[in-house]
Design brief:
One of its GO terms (molecular function) is acyltransferase activity, transferring groups other than amino-acyl groups. It comes from Planomicrobium soli. This is RimJ/RimL family protein N-acetyltransferase. InterPro entries: Acyl_CoA_acyltransferase, DUF7662, GNAT_dom. The chain is an alpha+beta fold. It has two domains: 93 residues, no CATH class; 163 residues, Aminopeptidase, CATH 3.40.630. Helices cover 31% and strands 29% of the residues. The chain contains nine helices and ten strands. It has a seven-stranded mixed beta sheet with strand order 4-5-6-7-8-10-9, with helices on both faces. Strands 1-3-2 form a three-stranded antiparallel beta sheet. A hairpin with a 3-residue loop joins strand 2 and strand 3. The longest helix is centred in the last third of the chain and has 15 residues. About 3% of the residues have low confidence.
Length: 267
C-alpha cells in the first residue's frame, strides 16, 4: 500500500490485492465480514462515500491500489468493483469472473457472531468434531470476550478463512501461559463442507505456522479421530506425524472411537 490505511480497511485491501477477477460484486454484509468490523454510517447513507478518490479520504485505497474502481453502488445492498485495466484491454480482461478469492486473517471481536454460526455449521456437517450438531452452547458475547482476551495475552489466536466474502473456515491456535509449555500449542481446524477441496485448510495451517514461529512456538499438536482419513491425510501432507493413540476418547453415535495424537515441530 502506498497510503497508510486505517487498520480496519487493511483486510479489505488484502482481499482486493489477492483478486484478479475483472468484476467483483460484494454485499455490504460480505464487506463487513472481510473487514471484521462495521462500515461507517456514511457508507450506508451516501453513494459518494464509495466514489471518493481524493484526500483527505483514504479508505478507497483499499481497492484502488489493487487496480479496482467502484462501478455501481446499491445503498445498503451491494457494491460492484471493476478492474481499471479491464476497460483498457489489460492482461486481466480475459480473467475468469468466477475465480475464487481467498483471504485469511486473524479474528476480530466483530467476527464473534459470524464465528459462532460458522462453528455450528461445521459441527453439524461433521461426524468427527468434539461437539455434535446443535450441542455446543456458545454466545456471541462469550466468543467476543475470548477473542479480545486471546489478542491481549498473545498466547492464542483464531484465523478465519474468507472465501468470496463469506466466512467458511477457522483455525484456533491454543497456546500456554506456563513457561514450561510456552513452546507448544494445540490447533483446532474446521472447514464448511461446501468450501472443502479448495486448499483452504492447507492455507490456514500455513498461517498458523507463521504465527507460531513469530511467537516462539516450535511444536504444534492436535488430535484426530482415527477414521477421519481425509483429515489425517491433510495433516500428514503438512508434515504432522502420529505420536500415539488416545483409546476410546470419544463416544460418537453411542460407539467408542480412538484418536491419533499428531504433532509437527517447526524449524
Amino acid at each position: 500500500m502506498t497510503i497508510l490505511l486505517e487498520k480496519k480497511y487493511i483486510p479489505l485491501a488484502n482481499y482486493f490485492s489477492s483478486a484478479t477477477n475483472p468484476s467483483i460484486r460484494l454485499s455490504f454484509n460480505e464487506i463487513e465480514k472481510i473487514m471484521g468490523q462495521q462500515l461507517p454510517n456514511a457508507a450506508y447513507l451516501n453513494k459518494s462515500w464509495w466514489k471518493k478518490t481524493k484526500a483527505p479520504a483514504k479508505h478507497f485505497h483499499a481497492w484502488i491500489d489493487a487496480g479496482y474502481l467502484v462501478k455501481d453502488v446499491e445503498p445498503n445492498r451491494y457494491v460492484v468493483f471493476e478492474r481499471i485495466d479491464l476497460s483498457e484491454g489489460g492482461a486481466n480482461a480475459g480473467a475468469d469472473i468466477n475465480e475464487d478469492i481467498l483471504l485469511i486473517r486473524t479474528a476480530e471481536h466483530g467476527d464473534a457472531s459470524s464465528l459462532v454460526t460458522l462453528q455450528k455449521t461445521v459441527e453439524a456437517e461433521s461426524d468427527f468434531m468434539l461437539y455434535g450438531k446443535d450441542e455446543r452452547v456458545q454466545s456471541t458475547q462469550k466468543v467476543r470476550k475470548q477473542i479480545i482476551e486471546w489478542k491481549k495475552n498473545g498466547h492464542s489466536t483464531i484465523f478465519i478463512a474468507i472465501l468470496n466474502g463469506e466466512h467458511v473456515g477457522y483455525l484456533m491456535v491454543i497456546g500456554n501461559a506456563a513457561k514450561r509449555a510456552a513452546h507448544r500449542a494445540a490447533i483446532v481446524l474446521g472447514i464448511q463442507e461446501n468450501a472443502r477441496g479448495k486448499g483452504i485448510a492447507s492455507s490456514l495451517l500455513q498461517r498458523a505456522e507463521e504465527w507460531a514461529l513469530a511467537k516462539g512456538v516450535t511444536r504444534l499438536e492436535l488430535t484426530v479421530v482415527t477414521e477421519n482419513t481425509p483429515a489425517i491425510n491433510l495433516y500428514e501432507k503438512a508434515g504432522y506425524e502420529r505420536e500415539g493413540v488416545r483409546k476410546k476418547s470419544l463416544i460418537i453415535a453411542d460407539q467408542p472411537h480412538d484418536e491419533f495424537y499428531m504433532a509437527k515441530f517447526l524449524e
